[in-house]
Design goal:
Elements lengths: L4 H9 L3 H23 L2 H18 L9 H20 L8 H4 L9 E2 L2 H8 L2 H12 L4 H8 L3 H21 L9 E2 L3
Antiparallel strand pairs: 1-2
Helix pairs in contact: 1-2, 2-3, 2-4, 3-4, 7-9, 8-9
């Protein structure tokens, strides 16, 4: 079994199907969970999940040796979500995109926790940062490289996002968006 990231990248670059299979097994749950928490909608998360893996199937052989595969996959997933929002609402400003495609009630699923409601109430950029740092465990310096921003600027953004999330949680459920449901996978 391939254990190291360089070996996995070598398989992908060689178009060996084992590379894709191993990469999928290693990262599928994290990518799907990120997309589900980011969008709050199962159908959207599933579509973007498929799009992310199709992109790897098409572009995996083009990855450079030494690429950070995990960061690449999360970047593809994040960009797919943003592209979806822009395609549905091309005139929207960046900070309005998440509101335009806000999750609605679902007939079945699990009730969102107070934390999940507060996260969904944040602007898209702040929600992404908190999910990538707090849930997916990206180091802030690694995330700064991934997003193409200076590390001090990213640290400030994360600090602001955490403060806004704390404020939303302090205000409690009365000020949070109405409860919504998301489907379990």
């Amino acid at each position: 079994m391939v254990e190291s990231e360089p070996d996995l990248l070598a398989l992908l670059r060689a178009r060996d199907p084992r590379g894709f299979e191993l990469c999928y097994a290693r990262h599928r749950d994290a990518i799907y969970g990120f997309l589900l928490r980011l969008s709050g909608q199962r159908a959207i998360a599933e579509d973007l999940f498929q799009e992310t893996w199709l992109r790897l199937a098409r572009k995996g052989a083009e990855l450079r040796p030494g690429s950070d595969l995990r960061a690449w996959l999360f970047t593809v997933a994040r960009n797919a979500y943003r592209s979806l929002l822009r395609s549905r609402h091309p005139q929207a400003r960046e900070e309005e995109l998440d509101e335009l495609l806000a999750p609605g009630d679902a007939a079945q699923g699990v009730e969102l926790s107070e934390l999940e409601r507060a996260l969904l109430a944040l602007p898209l950029e702040e929600r992404e940062l908190l999910l990538l740092v707090g849930v997916e465990g990206f180091a802030q310096d690694e995330l700064a490289r991934m997003l193409g921003v200076a590390a001090p600027a990213l640290r400030q953004r994360v600090t602001r996002a955490r403060a806004r999330l704390a404020q939303a949680l302090e205000r409690g459920p009365a000020s949070a968006p109405r409860p919504r449901r998301i489907h379990e996978r």
